[in-house]
Amino acid sequence: MTELKRALGLWTALAIVVGTVIGSGIFRVPQTMILSVGSVRMVFLVWIVGGVLSLAGALTYAELAAAMPGAGGEYVYLTEAYGPLWGFLYSWTQMWVAKSGSIATLATAFFEYTAHFVPGFENVWFSAGPFAVKYGQVFAMVLILALGGINYLGVKVGGDVQVAFTALKVGLIALIILAGLFSSHPVVGAPSIPAPPLIAGFTAALVAALWAYDGWNNVGMVAS
């Protein structure tokens, strides 16, 4: 087992967890949640329940990381529990399916939000039949390569970049909150949202919240 390099400090670890929790999901799922449960109060209740469930997963990872402090995360845990074959299969799946798909999804979400400020990203760069590549998609690919290059330089460099971007993200969210508190106006004649079946709607909203809350699991993964 490769020895774990403890190159991340407290602030870097906090930045990674906060930056992952406040990811694209938390901005994309509230609409789905409000349509599922029908009221803002129920949305807050779903967030609380989802947070408690995700915290249980985070604490589980933290316990595993403390018991087996080796580089590799889940690979180490599965190898210790079930043998090297299952550790390898999990790592292979993460490398070629799960993590690559997740990174592509996050980059696409970043491109879609950025396109609101840079409309040119929605223009098509080139097309081949039904297949069209937009400038924003090229931007997303360049972003993935750039962040990959930063992390290739070392854990410490990647951690410092994470701290900077997390501070920027939290600062911008604070500005949005302040703008909402002091500059908002009541909406007159807002359409009412029909209340869906409670159990089915709550479950659907909870699934969406847990997808957005997935970053809580990184509380333990930072330690591994």
Protein model, in words:
This protein is mainly α and 224 residues long. The protein has one domain. 71% of the residues lie in helices and 4% in strands. The protein has ten helices and two strands, in the order H-H-H-H-H-H-E-E-H-H-H-H. A two-stranded antiparallel sheet has the order 1-2. A hairpin with a 2-residue loop joins strand 1 (124-128) and strand 2 (131-134). The chain starts with 9 loop residues before the first helix and ends with a helix. 20% of the residues are buried.
Tell me about the biggest sheet? 2 strands, antiparallel
- The Cα radius of gyration reads 20 Å
Which ranges are low-confidence, i.e. pLDDT below 50, for 5 or more consecutive residues? 215-224
Mean pLDDT: 81
Strand content: under 5%
Q: Secondary-structure element order, as H and E?
A: HHHHHHEEHHHH
Number of helices: 10
Q: Which geometry do the CA atoms define?
A: globular
Summing up helix and strand content along with how strands pair, one would put the structural category as mainly alpha
Strand element count: 2
Q: Which terms would index this structure?
A:
two-stranded antiparallel ribbon, mainly alpha, globular, 71% helix, 10 helices, 224 residues
Task: Offer a concise description of the structure.
With 224 residues, the protein is mainly alpha-helical. The protein has helices at residues 10-21, 25-28, 30-37, 40-67, 74-82, 84-114, 135-152, 155-183, 198-212, 218-223; strands spanning 124-128, 131-134.
